[in-house]
Each structure stands twice: as structure tokens, then as C-alpha cells.
């Protein structure tokens, strides 16, 4: 589910017999929402985001963004070494090489879906 550049993972609670969601990727803030129907879920999701953004404005804080553009990746040391060497042979930094590799893979997979 997406609203105002925030994405949420949706789950179903068999015990409570309702859908619920959580905005993933926020480090310090927790935003949860729920609903018995998809319509209720979406309404509570959008309301939770609007309240969050308004609360940040009132407190002179910048709302957190889920995706800030940096993340850690753990790979085997030999693959790390190979990636650095290959990136340098292309006169790219490792970050540039990884970004290009991710873009290429996304394009490749989207073309098949």
C-alpha cells in the first residue's frame, strides 16, 4: 500500500480478524494502522500518514523518509573484492557500480513481468 511516498506492509491477524499494517523502514518513528476491510485499512493508513506529517510540522521536525539512499549489504569477501576491482576497471566507485547493477537487474526483471 502506498500513500504520499510512504509504503506499508499489510498483514492479517487471524486472532483479531482484521488487517493491519506498518510503515516499514522508519528508524525512530512507528506508524501502525488497521481495518476490517480494505477500504477501512486504506482510510486508516492515509489518516495515520497525514497525522504523522502534521505532528512533525507542529514540532518543527522533518518527517522521516523510508528510503534515504543508503543501506548496508553483506556479501562474501571474495565477491566484495571482485566487485571493487571490476568497478575500478570501469572507472566507477563501488557505490556507482552497485547502483548501476541494481538498476540493470530491476529493468531486466520488469521486462519479464
Secondary-structure map:
Layout: E1 2-3, E2 6-13, E3 18-23, E4 32-35, H1 38-58, H2 77-89, H3 94-112
Antiparallel strand pairs: 1-2, 2-3, 3-4
Helix pairs in contact: 2-3
Continuous helix count: 3
**Poorly predicted runs of 5 or more residues:** none
Number of beta-strand segments: 4
- Lateral strand order in the biggest sheet: 1-2-3-4
* Biggest beta-sheet profile: 4 strands, antiparallel
Give the amount of beta strand, in percent.
15-25%
Short description:
By secondary structure, the protein is an alpha+beta fold. It contains 3 helices and 4 strands. The protein folds into 2 domains: 2-58, no CATH class; 77-112.
Could you explain the architecture of this structure?
With 113 residues, the chain is an alpha+beta fold. It has two domains: 2-58, no CATH class; 77-112. The chain is 47% helix and 18% strand. It has helices at 38-58, 77-89, 94-112, and strands spanning 2-3, 6-13, 18-23, 32-35. The protein has a four-stranded antiparallel sheet with strand order 1-2-3-4, covered by helices on one side. Helix 2 (77-89) crosses helix 3. The chain is elongated and about 55 Å long. The model has no long low-confidence stretch (mean pLDDT 91).
Amino acid at each position: 500500500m502506498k500513500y504520499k511516498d510512504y509504503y506499508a506492509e499489510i498483514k492479517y491477524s487471524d486472532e483479531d480478524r482484521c488487517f493491519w499494517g506498518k510503515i516499514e523502514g522508519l528508524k525512530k518513528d512507528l506508524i501502525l494502522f488497521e481495518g476490517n476491510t480494505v477500504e477501512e485499512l486504506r482510510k486508516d493508513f492515509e489518516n495515520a500518514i497525514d497525522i504523522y506529517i502534521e505532528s512533525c510540522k507542529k514540532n518543527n521536525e522533518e518527517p522521516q523518509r523510508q528510503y534515504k539512499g543508503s543501506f548496508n549489504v553483506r556479501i562474501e569477501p571474495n565477491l566484495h573484492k571482485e566487485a571493487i576491482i571490476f568497478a575500478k576497471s570501469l572507472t566507477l566507485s563501488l557505490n556507482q557500480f552497485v547502483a548501476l547493477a541494481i538498476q540493470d537487474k530491476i529493468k531486466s526483471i520488469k521486462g519479464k513481468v
